[in-house]
Amino acid sequence: MKKRIFSLLMSGLLVLGLTACGTTQESPTNENTESSAGTDSEQTVDGKSLVVYFSMPETTNPENMNAEEEYSTVVIDGEVLGNTQYVAYVIQENTGADIFRIEPVTPYPMDHGELEEVATEEKRNNAMPEITAEVENLEQYDTIFLWYPNWYADMPRIIYSFLEQYDLSGKTIVPFVTSGGSGFSNTIQTIAEQEPDATVVTDGLYISRTEVQDAEQEIIQWVNELGYSK
């Protein structure tokens, strides 16, 4: 399975067609509303899906990683993938969804200490980092798998940028998160507040950053329970 995912990555078949910078801003109504979707293992979900993810691997070198670099990455056939990047590919492989990577116009530093400083400053200032590309034909998708790491008991601020940029009204949002132990914190509630007219699955999947490498079957089982397996 992992080798198939890596082959797709290298061939470029996983990348959704993107339009270069120049995104438009939309401001969803900020209401405190949240609803859940069922998780019956035998249900079948119709409609097209999109995996949206933000991943921040702290190295591209599989050799001599320090602890923080190991925690933020998965190594497949000698190639380094970010934790959330790897999970996004597993979901894409098992659902047939399209995929979109959230990337900032100003790249984040890969050094852990510097990354912490930037992330802390963004959180303090409620920053909205600009995203490099935009999703084409968002209206064709019924379900958005939203995958992100937990940064300081919150979503990375660039996830806020995505939710502000796109109106996901009428869509189902399925959150997934990786973290060092904080789980989702209050991020599912935050997503529901940012996208009040979407259906937000309240029992999304959390995977510890130390267990991502061996979580493939857990991810597949969860996708099956949600009814999104292809």
From TrEMBL:
Any GO molecular function: oxidoreductase activity, acting on NAD(P)H
Q: Does the keyword Signal apply?
A: yes
The record ties this protein, via Gene3D superfamilies, to: 3.40.50.360
Q: Which domain of life is it from?
A: Bacteria
Write out the ranges of the annotated region (Disordered): 23-42
All copies of domain Flavodoxin-like, residue ranges: 81-225
By its UniProt entry, which Pfam families does this protein fall under?
Answer: Flavodoxin_4 (PF12682)
Q: Does the keyword Flavoprotein apply?
A: no
Signal peptide coordinates = 1-20
Keyword vocabulary terms for this entry: Signal
Q: What is this protein called?
A: Flavodoxin
Organism of origin: Eubacterium limosum
What lineage does UniProt assign to this protein's organism?
Answer: Bacteria, Bacillati, Bacillota, Clostridia, Eubacteriales
